[in-house]
Specification:
45% of the residues lie in helices and 14% in strands. It is of the alpha/beta class and 449 residues long. The strands form six sheets. Strands 2-1-3-6-7 form a five-stranded parallel sheet, sandwiched between helices. β1, α1 and β2 form a beta-alpha-beta unit.
Length: 449
């Protein structure tokens, strides 16, 4: 069993060998070198958790190399090896980033615990770094699916505001991905290693929402038997996402405005201010300017939260993305539900492209889960779609004198060309015919005119 790799850099062979044998007995793997240059080479080639570095290496001061070691391997912990009576060297090395120091001649019961603590710090730092990388990857802007111009514009705006603490207002219909955008902004910002706290203002009664946001002191009201930290305080140094902010009660809006203006608030039952450092991202699916005119939303709060507005398009405004989103969700639920999907009918995609999706991406996701559950023989067909997909009216019906197959075919090709913005490749794919055949039909029915 190998507990981990330790690099020993010391120009005294006796010290190197003694430490190496001691650590090998404790199931550590050791690399032993006598020069700093040899040690740096190993550090670049191997995964080293802890370095034991002598302060005096011939004519070199090991302390001077602490920054270089940290630059090569930031998570590697450094333990300095000092001569007896040279405690000041150990203290100076810690100031430069070393974990700790040990003195030559220390007993094993002092050396080993120091090394074990350094390993534990390295392990926790490595885990935290991996977790941050995983979260950053999950909420990368590159993972927001879509290539339509409107969604690309929204992503570019979000990227520009990432490293600022400016308040952001996300506007868009329900189900357009406002929370995903807010998470992407947070986890790609300077606050990424702090809390992201989200609350839906429309999902909580207003009398409870105040306590959830601001907390309270013990005895503030009947039933307040202990202090409660609110979500604003929980989000300190991080980001607070206020979804459906337009549903917040008018009196609470004034208290939120104070937080935005002063970074302080007073908890119910408290006499002193609580100071916070938070970034607020708000979202709404209603017209806040109309709400201001109706007297249900504060104009001064609107000006504070609308410093930077990002409009998220509805799914019907980005129809080119419907298929790629559907493919992603079908693939996702295939794995989750342990189903193999090898065929999706062109008619299924055609029905999706014709539908208006009042519930936007969220509705499409639910539909894809449904069709994967219903799928048989590794196939998805249009019959698995909900009934509302079959209730839409034809924009034009053929007359009694014009019910031939050719007339119906012409109408269908016209419709698909319109849906795909005259993209011939997409139209042919949706119709289930070859591109050459489509061009022939277009010429036959004079559809290029």
């Amino acid at each position: 069993m190998n507990k981990g790799n330790i690099l020993i850099i010391d120009d005294e062979a006796e010290i190197r060998n003694l430490l190496s044998k001691l650590l090998q007995l404790e199931e550590y793997f050791t690399f032993c070198v006598e020069t700093i240059s040899a040690g740096l080479k190993i550090l670049e080639e191997e995964e080293i958790s802890v370095i034991i570095l002598d302060v005096r290496l011939q004519n070199i001061n090991g302390i001077d190399y602490i920054p270089k070691i940290k630059n090569i391997s930031p998570l590697t912990e450094i333990i300095m090896l000092t001569a007896y009576g040279k405690i000041v060297d150990g203290v100076n090395s810690i100031k430069l980033g070393a974990f700790d120091y040990i003195t030559k001649g220390d007993d094993d019961d002092k050396v080993l615990p120091t090394i074990e603590k350094a390993f534990e710090k390295n392990r926790l730092s490595t885990q935290l770094t991996k977790l941050r990388k995983k979260i950053s990857t999950k909420y990368s802007f590159d993972n927001i699916i879509g290539s339509s111009s409107k969604i690309k514009d929204a992503i570019e705006l979000a990227k520009k505001i990432t490293f600022s603490d400016t308040t952001v207002l996300l506007k868009g219909e329900t189900g357009t991905g406002k929370e995903i955008f807010s998470q992407s902004i947070h986890y790609n910002s300077n606050r990424a290693d702090k809390q992201f706290v989200a609350i839906n203002c429309s999902a909580i009664p207003n009398d409870i929402l105040e306590s959830e946001l601001f907390g309270y002191k013990k005895g503030a009201f009947t039933g307040a038997n202990s202090n409660k930290k609110g979500l604003i305080e929980e989000a300190d140094e991080g980001t607070l996402f206020l979804d459906e902010i337009g549903e917040m009660a008018y009196n609470l809006q004034a208290k939120l405005l104070r937080v935005l203006e002063t970074n302080t608030f007073i908890k119910p039952g408290d006499q002193k201010e609580t100071k916070v450092d938070i970034r607020i991202i708000a979202a709404t699916n209603i017209d806040l300017e109309k709400a201001i005119a109706e007297g249900t939303f504060r104009k001064d709060l609107y000006y504070r939260i609308s410093t930077f507005i990002i409009e998220l398009p509805s799914l019907r405004e980005r129809r080119d993305d419907i298929r790629v989103l559907a493919d992603y969700f079908i693939s996702y639920f295939s794995v989750k539900l342990k189903k193999q999907i090898s065929f999706v009918s062109p008619e299924f995609y055609l029905k999706l492209s014709e539908y208006n999706f009042p519930g936007n991406i969220r509705e499409l996701k639910n539909i894809c889960e449904r069709v994967v559950i219903l799928s048989e023989n590794s196939s998805i067909i249009e019959d698995y779609l909900p009934q509302e997909f079959f209730k839409q009216q034809f924009e034009k019906l053929p007359t009694d004198d014009d019910l031939s197959f050719a007339s119906i075919e012409k109408i269908q090709i016209e419709k698909v060309l319109r849906i795909t913005d005259n993209n011939k490749n997409k139209a042919a794919e949706l119709l289930g015919i070859g591109l050459t055949t489509l061009y022939r039909k277009i010429e036959q029915y004079n559809l290029d005119e």
